[in-house]
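Hi W.,

Here's what went into the run:
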Amino acid sequence: AQSVAQPEDQVNVAEGNPLTVKCTYSVSGNPYLFWYVQYPNRGLQFLLKYITGDNLVKGSYGFEAEFNKSQTSFHLKKPSALVSDSALYFCAVRAPYSSASKIIFGSGTRLSIRP
Amino acid sequence: NAGVTQTPKFQVLKTGQSMTLQCAQDMNHNSMYWYRQDPGMGLRLIYYSASEGTTDKGEVPNGYNVSRLNKREFSLRLESAAPSQTSVYFCASTRTGQAYEQYFGPGTRLTVT
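Here's what came out:
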């Protein structure tokens, strides 16, 4: 069965430090992987995706994510955190050749950046 | 280009009342979705429409119905609201194909008392 896990409910980082938000997945075949961000009282916004090719994917707002097939992970990273990065982050996975319904979201990780 | 719009933004219902949540997108997307978001549970798919004229159940369809009115609009109806349906509801749309990201509306915060 297809699944995605975000093992940390909350991640706390000091401004200027690097940040990592973890995501692991389980899917048959080569997955399509996505990260979304949700600011308070807003809908989810797309950050980046991995479809194929280079394992390091760059996205919006200076975020990047590394696809690791052997560890079935797709961790979100940023070299230097900003207070404005504080938000709720969701990882999502979709299996290849799957129906339109088969987009699975993680439970979310709340990122808090302290000044 | 407004993206995905939803109305209303907030709604309070009494148990047993009915209402329809409206969603529209102006990006010419084929697929549209309704999710609910509850604390600690991420997003759960209620219904989706892969293309105009088709709708299918998602993970949590009980208590809801949908209508894909045309390519732009996808509405969600609660026929007899229950407190368990208190949630934030998001509509999303995407282009056809597995590789495309979803675009989300701003959400409707529904409270059922």
